[in-house]
Amino acid sequence: MGIFLGDYSIFGKRKDLNVIRDKNGKYASVIRKAEGDQCPIATQDVSVNLVNREKAIETAAYGPLNPAEPNTAFWEAKAKRWDLPIAEAKKSLCGNCAAFIKTPEMLDCIESGLKQGDSKNAMDTIKAGDLGYCEAFDFKCASARTCDAWVSGGPVTKAKNLKVGDVVQYSIRKPEGTIFALGKVEQVKTNGKVKLEGTGESKEATPEDPVAVLRVYAETDSGTQETDRRVVKPFSELRRTDKKLEKALEDTLATKVKEHNESVGGAKGKKATVGMLMNVYRRGIGAYNTNPSSVRPNVTGPQQWAMARVNSFLYGLKNGRFRNKAFDTDLLPESHPLHRKD
Q1: Which residues, including other chains, have CB under 8 Å from residue 220's CB and lie 6 or more apart?
Q2: What are 120-156's pLDDT values in tens digits?
Q3: Is residue 299 a contact partner of residue 291, using CB atoms and an 8 Å limit?
Q4: Local confidence band at 75 (pLDDT 50, 70, 90 cut-offs)
Q5: Where are the domains of the chain?
Q6: How far apart are the C-alpha atoms of 274 and 280, rounded to whole Å?
Q7: 138-165: string of b/e by CB count within 10 Å (b at 16+)?
Q8: Are 93 and 147 in contact (CB under 8 A)?
Q9: Residue 117 above 90 pLDDT?
């Protein structure tokens, strides 16, 4: 009959697409594009688009119906759900959501679909509604609306031409909905099998669809920070984003640098820099992952361990001695008495 995912099951209703139905047989959403097609089905078939939009309305309160109206009750509900002032909630729109796709390729898809429906001014329609494609629910949506699945970091407007250092997002589909993960491109391969050592994960890279090795980032109480996880993903599953990684971490380290440098005054060889502390922090992440036996039981994760390493390093930098064994002495200023080249 079908492959059950929670309350939904996938059925091959048509040869060119798959749909998800709920247990009562009602269409829930269409999740795949036609075989060999470069455009999502919902951009080409208005009936599919309506099914998916209805799902967004039912499960994620997509709206409001007319963004030009005050919609007081709608925004009060969103503000309560997100625990934000109403004015702030109104800023969280489809138009700046990470799932809102407005690449030139996607806009071409939307335009071609509208033309199939005898729309004489397809691009005018796109501009009037500021339309894009919702990757979370797979339908054409308007930038002035929003839904409960809103994720910061959008819109996605750039065509894919990824390089090392780019920040990207990729979607992870789950029965309860789509979530988005962040990563930074560490490697790019255009041919052959790309495999991560120590894992069973591998992807085949081609010139038409290269593969990127990503460093995964996670949202923590301190902001978006690097993790020890790496994944391989084809370009076709990635979206470049302008989200700044490690911004919260850099701000934290900058504050520590300012406070430390003020405390040492003009002392020669005792000044800290953000770059210096960032290197100490990253070594702390590495030490946590490669030597877990040295980690104290009360440490909750690599970020806490790495920040403790930074604090201990600053103590050694300021006092000319470490509380315990010296470390990272190659990062100390050359005029510091404990500086070593290795």
Answers
A1: 303
A2: 577 777 777 788 999 888 899 999 999 988 887 778 7
A3: no
A4: very high
A5: 26-142, 167-240, 247-331
A6: 10
A7: bbbbbbebbbebbbebbbbbeebebeee
A8: no
A9: no
